[in-house]
């Protein structure tokens, strides 16, 4: 559909007002939306996803000028980020206003807020009126790969969703950057579609990526295991990847191997090793990641071996998703231990 498909938008808005659940496209991934003030509809979102009720949802609304309606005690940094990055793949964690029910926030006094950058999403949110908003996580089962097309939503959730708005493939393909605030610093609680250097440049100051031991606020996608395909996934450094592939092949396993660097040991063709080359440009890689992992899932491999991304800010969101995917039960990670403590990392505008 297109944003001019008025009948579809009107029907979806009416369904949401009546307590229905609508999957809708954003520039990041597809969301599973309930009208934010409808308690039973929000509860149904948790049930459809099989999501723990203490895991907060993000509130999506249409106009950054309405930020004060959904949050209180808004710091100046938040207004500056909203002006620069909304609509866009940025979620900000702020003290919730009385308009945000507690069941949306997982019982916390903070809420994640975002203005999405997709014509269908914005048309739907505007159709809900100036005080309308959607409480929406990604439109998939909890802990699994996020959907980046309407077909992914239908495949995974089927008729559990009342309506799916098709807005094509998501252009970013990874979830939003989540930012919180502490005094004069911005805290990146989940890396995503906004580069860290861009945040630092707008704020003119320090941006902190908290280590796990220092992250007190619960935010979407922050569990050690998340974003996982059904096929067990292993994440390996470039120099170890093909050695691991040959080890597993000797055990009779069939593997999908996904790389970005172009390094290939030039092995003769082997029926149990299928190689998938990904782009070396992080934005393109990120936009294709979930769709590629879903396609590999469909091929019923015994194992997925993924080349670890570079240790570079531009790849941070991709590394985060792959690390969590490899930490699912029965999966394997070889970069950092899934439960290891991490020290805070600072990014300043001086290093841009």
Please specify the SSE layout and strand pairing.
Blueprint: H1 6-17, E1 22-24, E2 31-35, H2 39-49, E3 58-60, H3 67-70, H4 76-85, E4 90-95, E5 110-114, H5 119-127, E6 134-136, H6 150-157, E7 163-164, E8 177-182, E9 185-190, H7 196-203, E10 207-209, E11 233-236, H8 238-250, E12 255-259, E13 273-277, H9 282-298, E14 303-307, H10 316-326, E15 332-333, E16 345-347
Parallel strand pairs: 1-7, 3-5, 4-8, 9-10, 11-14, 11-15, 12-13, 12-14
Antiparallel strand pairs: 1-2, 2-6, 3-6, 4-5, 8-9, 10-16
Helix pairs in contact: 1-5
Structural commentary:
It is a single chain. By secondary structure, the protein is an alpha/beta fold. It folds into two domains: 6-214, Alpha-Beta Complex (DHBP synthase); 233-342, Rossmann fold. It is 29% helix and 19% strand. It is built from ten helices and 16 strands. It has helices at residues 6-17, 39-49, 67-70, 76-85, 119-127, 150-157, 196-203, 238-250, 282-298, 316-326; strands at residues 22-24, 31-35, 58-60, 90-95, 110-114, 134-136, 163-164, 177-182, 185-190, 207-209, 233-236, 255-259, 273-277, 303-307, 332-333, 345-347. The strands form two sheets. An eleven-stranded mixed β-sheet has the order 7-1-2-6-3-5-4-8-9-10-16, with helices on both faces. A five-stranded parallel β-sheet has the order 13-12-14-11-15. The longest helix has 17 residues, at 282-298. The two termini are 39 Å apart. The model is unreliable at 333-337 and 348-352 (pLDDT under 50).
